[in-house]
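Long-time lurker. I teach an intro course on protein structure, and each term I like to show students one example going from raw sequence to a predicted 3D structure in token notation. This year I'd like something fresh instead of my usual example. Would anyone be willing to generate the tokens for the chain below so I can use it in lecture? Attribution to the forum is fine with me.
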Amino acid sequence: MDKVKSFLKKLLHWLKSSVIVKAIIVWVIGLVILAIVVDKIVLPIFAGSFTSTGEVPALEGLSAEAAQAKLDSAGFKYEWLEEGRYNSQVPAGMVLVQMPAAGRIAKLGRTVKLTKSLGIREVEIPDLRGKSQKQAEISLTRAGLVQGEIVKGAHASIPRGVVIRTDPMAGNKVRLGDTVKVVISAGATTGKVMLPSFEGEMIDNVYQKLEQLGFRVGKIKRVKGENGEMSGTVLETAPKEGDYLKPDTKIDFIVAD
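-- Reply from a regular --
Happy to contribute to a lecture. Here you go:
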């Protein structure tokens, strides 16, 4: 009889424990479901009743006044970043970059950050007077410019091969990457004549021009043209074009055979 009573007590205890465990499990599951409902449904509805959003307008390429007015109308604030950026496409003073980007959905009252275009970057042509041709090329490269055509000019005091000036002149502002001509001294050229370029002309047409300039025809060497030049076409001269020469100087020619 005692054994039966003991068994019944154990069974009753197990049933009570099982009910408690099940109740705890159901309670935990209920809390998880409630948290999900609050997070996914209740909070968005609650937040939406207090927060309004809008689409960020397109501002790039607009003037400062137009961009600010557009943001005010759309319900956004604005902030101009201190540092602008150079750009060859967007004129100076216009909006170059906006953040957030156009078309993004953002909370009304959010600050849209704006960057102004500084336009095309300009640089000042350095003073190259008195420099060698190599030094002039280095200076132009450092300034972000490209050395262009080398022009020889007469000068009584600046030695031969030294820079007289640039074209455009030093101190002028040009666009970054522009080409600058360099005028190199041919030295004192009183009584001298500059030899023009005869490259590409027919040698038969050059004789009269040389005579008018006061020069004489020297040696004529015929070689096979590498680019299909017609027979008799001038390929090179010696001395080279641009040199200032005394009258009666002999000019040698290399012509296509």
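Some talking points for your students: The two ends are 137 Å apart (CA to CA). The helical segments are 2-48, 64-74, 133-142, 203-213.
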